[in-house]
Amino acid sequence: MKKILWILIFLPSFIIAQNQQSDSLKVDLSSPSATINTHLNFLQEDNYQPKKSAKTINGLEEKKAIRKAIKIKQVLDGKGLYIDLNTLPTNSNYVDSVGVNAYSRYVIFPNRLPDVYLEKKGNKWFYSDETVTRIDAIYNSVFPWYVNWLQEIVPEYGHYSFLGIEIWQIVALIILLSIVIVLYFFFRKIAFWILKKIQHYITKSNENIEVDKVLKKLAHPISLLISINLIDVVFPSLQFTLAVNRWVFLALNIVETVFWIYVFLKLIKVAMEIYAEFTENTHSRLDDQLVPILNNFFTGLVIVLGFFKLLTLFGVDATTLIAGATIGGLAFALASQDTVKNLIGTIMIFLDKPFHIDDWIEAGEVVGTVERVGFRSTRVRAADTSIYQIPNSKLSEIVINNKGLRLYRRYNTNLGLRYDTPPELIEAFVNGVRQIIIEHPETRSDSYNVEFTGFGDSALLIMVNVYFKSLAWSEEQTSKHRLHIAIIKLAAALGVEFAFPSTTVTIEQFPDKGNLSPKYNTSKENINATIQNILTEFKNDVPPENTPES
């Protein structure tokens, strides 16, 4: 009797306390944070009041608003989108500044669910009209038609739970993973076939073993990405709890990001292989040097962007991250101005192309062959095989004499004949040298000069001005060698002697001494026959092997 009495005394107080506690949780739509709290709190199992939650939906009758509010929460749970209530904006005048125009709206998950957002109407925040209109389509995409069908065919014992997970969910997960594994091997073959077709379409060739190896490695992550996307689409249908979905989708996003990084790295490698094959068929070797530079640049870019993406998956604000990276990059640039200047100089060199690899250049005090163009400097090998490392910033500013871009290599020299050489032999010698130049395979036969130009201190001067076709230094020396040998043979055959600085005392009459002057044969028949023999020998002469280029 006493117990009943105590119950009757304290029961009204308990009911009043419960009503007061219920009334303390009021509908609050004053800010994005308050609206989302109202929506989610009144749909919890321990505080299920869908009518209050439906207050966040504007312009619909109560029953429809309740269905919309419930579907929004189910979509968030199905996609594993956990809302940290402490990070929501509490400002009633919050403005979304992302984009060209500023709006009084708040997108909860801009990347994964951009169509679900709040907007301010009057002094209150509601789910936007677009969200309310599209939530049914979003719900159907997250929970397709077969979800209800699964619920109907699952027997009663299938709903028994183990560690908070129902048996039918475990069985469905095993079936899903089995299907994904089978599809992975199928998609891998399809991906390799498609990549091979694309590579053949671009390069018009199937005979590239290195590219085939890279394409096979590239087909693996592509098929894995397709499999992960399949899991991403189907997994919400298994209706796990928010906690499970949250960690599963986080893991899937991390794996997907890592695979995308791998895919882009392999794509860069394939692109560089194809570009390297293309540059091998071009005349310029500067393009060949561009391959490793572009490879390093794009590889670093993919890794940096992928790292930023991974940080955003762990909740790091992308705006803050980019701002910090910008400030840090500015500070780094100020601290390394010379490096930045050299990088800009590198870009200017590849854009202007003042020289190519293996070109012989004169850049200030440096004369030599360009061997390599890097990010920071250019390597030039001098004639004595020493190496010069010229900063690209300096190289892009100074005057460069690129002898490798000459159309022809000009060679000019003077031949000195003895003063007592008869005019007939001088004329014959000049004509013979002209014929040698015409018959020389490495000289321009349409542009040359061989003339008797003057009287030197010790010799009659014959100017020889020719242009060699080859731009390579070693081939020029070989061509000179062959030309010189032919001229010497011509002079010897004609009996023409080369002069050298000397003083000659002529004694016209000296007892028992003959004249020391050379005997010249000026017979026209002999001259023509001699020149013809020399030209025939020159044509049949095998040129010596090229000497190594300095």
TrEMBL record:
<dbReference type="InterPro" id="IPR010920">
    <property type="entry name" value="LSM_dom_sf"/>
</dbReference>
<dbReference type="Pfam" id="PF00924">
    <property type="entry name" value="MS_channel_2nd"/>
</dbReference>
<dbReference type="InterPro" id="IPR045042">
    <property type="entry name" value="YnaI-like"/>
</dbReference>
<dbReference type="InterPro" id="IPR011066">
    <property type="entry name" value="MscS_channel_C_sf"/>
</dbReference>
<dbReference type="InterPro" id="IPR011014">
    <property type="entry name" value="MscS_channel_TM-2"/>
</dbReference>
<dbReference type="GO" id="GO:0005886">
    <property type="term" value="C:plasma membrane"/>
</dbReference>
<keyword id="KW-1133">Transmembrane helix</keyword>
<keyword id="KW-0732">Signal</keyword>
<dbReference type="GO" id="GO:0008381">
    <property type="term" value="F:mechanosensitive monoatomic ion channel activity"/>
</dbReference>
<feature type="transmembrane region" description="Helical">
    <location>
        <begin position="247"/>
        <end position="268"/>
    </location>
</feature>
<comment type="similarity">
    <text>Belongs to the MscS (TC 1.A.23) family.</text>
</comment>
<dbReference type="InterPro" id="IPR049278">
    <property type="entry name" value="MS_channel_C"/>
</dbReference>
<keyword id="KW-1003">Cell membrane</keyword>
<keyword id="KW-0472">Membrane</keyword>
<feature type="signal peptide">
    <location>
        <begin position="1"/>
        <end position="17"/>
    </location>
</feature>
<dbReference type="InterPro" id="IPR006685">
    <property type="entry name" value="MscS_channel_2nd"/>
</dbReference>
<feature type="transmembrane region" description="Helical">
    <location>
        <begin position="289"/>
        <end position="308"/>
    </location>
</feature>
<keyword id="KW-0812">Transmembrane</keyword>
<feature type="transmembrane region" description="Helical">
    <location>
        <begin position="314"/>
        <end position="335"/>
    </location>
</feature>
<feature type="transmembrane region" description="Helical">
    <location>
        <begin position="222"/>
        <end position="241"/>
    </location>
</feature>
<protein>
    <submittedName>
        <fullName>MscS family membrane protein</fullName>
    </submittedName>
</protein>
<dbReference type="Pfam" id="PF21082">
    <property type="entry name" value="MS_channel_3rd"/>
</dbReference>
<feature type="domain" description="Mechanosensitive ion channel MscS C-terminal">
    <location>
        <begin position="413"/>
        <end position="497"/>
    </location>
</feature>
<feature type="transmembrane region" description="Helical">
    <location>
        <begin position="167"/>
        <end position="187"/>
    </location>
</feature>
<dbReference type="InterPro" id="IPR023408">
    <property type="entry name" value="MscS_beta-dom_sf"/>
</dbReference>
<feature type="domain" description="Mechanosensitive ion channel MscS">
    <location>
        <begin position="338"/>
        <end position="402"/>
    </location>
</feature>
